[in-house]
Amino acid sequence: MSPTTPVRKAVVAVMAATAVLTAVAAPAVAAPRPASVGHPDSARLGYQKAVAERVLKGVFERGDTEIVDRFVRPDYIQHNPFAPDGAETLKGLATSVHAQFPDAVYGIKRVLSEGDLVLVHSNVVLTPGDRGQAVFDIFRFQGGKIAEHWDVGQTVPESSVNGNDMFSTVSWPRTTEPGPGFLTGYNKKLVTAAFDQLLVKKDLSAIDRYWGREYHQHNPGIADGVAGVKSGLGAYFAAFPELKVEPKRIIAEGDLVAVHSHYIPAPGERGQAIVDLFRIRAGKIVEHWDVIQDVPANAANDNGMF
């Protein structure tokens, strides 16, 4: 979906609002998602994810402004270019968007957490029957409340060249939950190295080294499998020889690793905000999801998208 449309602006604002609220050590929270087994901070990570889900759905689907009062820091920092800073702004956005789209659904697909960050991958549908948007929200927790929010959103297309939708899990095991927490450190290092070689240095041989023979693609414009990613990225690099990719933050849990980056096709261009999410099994990347949004010329805050 074009990030310049009024609907996108409203949705983004709401996401920001919801984001803000997620991170509190509040009592009476919904039952946590299972945390990664073997992680020393598994209880805290599980709590952060449970709160994030509860707040996103409460604010976006029900227009619950009380949750903002409970869980958002007054000095909340917003990176969504269509939403100003501050908790009061978020409350107003939540109310107005819920009034305009009372049947909106924030369909959360997967959630991972590392340190003070939570990443949520969702299908946001404003009107029943629409394909909606693929969205990644990133929330930073501070002092038991949400302190900062980034997001990236893209319209879900009618079709995909690889036959996969933008949300399902195809690789085995077919679960949306992150794998064991003891794998987090290893997998984060693997994806960091693979991303640097392939996308920062534009070295296609990284695919032979880090990608598994079973590889499932969810970017709707790239064919499935290792051959598909080689061909797709090879053409992309050829079309944009001055491409610069700047990773901003990497969030990992178990077998899932997300990279939030600024892709700049040529000097002087604003580029795109992109989140790439990778799944790793037995030391190889076996699945990939992403969301891409153009960086707009103007923003409602002075924080930038990164």
How would you describe this protein?
31% of the residues lie in helices and 31% in strands. It contains seven helices and ten strands. The chain has helices at 6-21, 42-62, 66-71, 87-100, 184-200, 205-210, 225-239, and strands at 72-78, 105-114, 117-125, 133-142, 145-155, 211-217, 244-253, 256-264, 272-281, 284-294. A five-stranded mixed sheet has the order 1-5-4-3-2. The protein has a five-stranded mixed sheet with strand order 6-10-9-8-7. A hairpin with a 2-residue loop joins strand 9 (272-281) and strand 10.
Please describe the topology of this protein:
Layout (H helix, E strand, L loop, with lengths): L5 H16 L20 H21 L3 H6 E7 L8 H14 L4 E10 L2 E9 L7 E10 L2 E11 L28 H17 L4 H6 E7 L7 H15 L4 E10 L2 E9 L7 E10 L2 E11 L12
Helix pairs in contact: 1-2, 1-4, 2-4
Characterize this entry briefly:
This protein is 31% helix and 31% strand.
Which stretches are low in confidence, meaning pLDDT under 50 for 5 or more residues running?
Answer: 1-31
What spatial order of strands do you see in the largest sheet? 1-5-4-3-2
Write down the secondary-structure element order. HHHEHEEEEHHEHEEEE
User: What's the average pLDDT?
Assistant: 88
First-last Cα distance? 20 Å
Number of strands: 10
Radius of gyration: 18 Å
Instruction: State the helix count.
Output: 7
Helix content: 25-40%
- The shape is globular
Class per helix and strand makeup: alpha+beta
- How much strand content do the residues show? 25-35%
Largest sheet: 5 strands, mixed
